[in-house]
Amino acid sequence: MTTLAPRQPLLKIRPPRGWAAINLRELWQARDLLFTLANRDIKLRYRQTILGVVWVLLQPLLAAGIFTLVFGLIAKLPSGGLPYFVFSYAGMLGWGIFNNVLSKSSASLVGNAQLVAKAYFPRLLLPLSTVVSSLLDFAVTLVVMVVLMLIYRVPLTAAFVLLPLWVILIAALAIGTGLYAASLTVSYRDVQYLMPVVLQLLLYASAVGYAVPDEPHKVKMLLLLNPITGLIEAFRWSVLGSTPHWWAVIYSSVLAIVALAAGAVAFKRMERKFADVI
Questions:
Q1: Which stretches of the chain score pLDDT less than 70?
Q2: Which is nearest to 176 in space by CA: 266, 269, 270?
Q3: What span, in angstroms and rounded, lies between the C-alpha atoms of 133 and 124?
Q4: With b meaning 16 or more CB within 10 Å and e meaning fewer, what string describes 197-216?
């Protein structure tokens, strides 16, 4: 009798050696999984909650109310002639994209440890899926923004057409930073405990609930050198028409693109160890 040789596997999965480019074709082929992960994220977030999706609306509204009380009524900081509640709520919308994408993407690998360790798929889909769910939350809160503008009689300007650009750049800055943080979290779990503290500090150092002051000059420069501040100002300009510091907008936009590219490269380089270390 002739003994049949064992069949060789059709696909051999090996970690890449050295630098490896992101396989965009593979990501596109797995787009259904991307939307499945995003849908799962949305469902899990509001499971066993009484208010459910209402929390998406309450969080920026409550934060805007606190900023109005502290910075508007008590500190009496200027808001460029705009109603302070609308001014701070617009800032919270821009911040919400950054905060949600960064916080969720940085924990996406550790939160799906069993999936990463046992199944093969483009690992990049896990942090990218958080962008989809975060943008859905943003779309809901943007409707409330329009309602507030109607109530306070704030006119919509032509700059509104550029709003998608600032949303994309804020998401790019967040996901770029999140990719690097997610990669580090696999080996160093301290990152997931440090991230909420860093985000809380950034919230108050990003001119979200107040306008960047002209004086003192050192404080103004420190605020504008924060990468998210320029994008928050540009976001608020598109919605409310308030004038931003354009050099800070350009600076933040460039940093967002650099952060996205650097985060993707770092993620790809560390990806080969995820399944073993996680």
A1: 1-21, 46-52, 275-276, 278
A2: 266
A3: 15
A4: eebeebbeebbbbbbbeeee
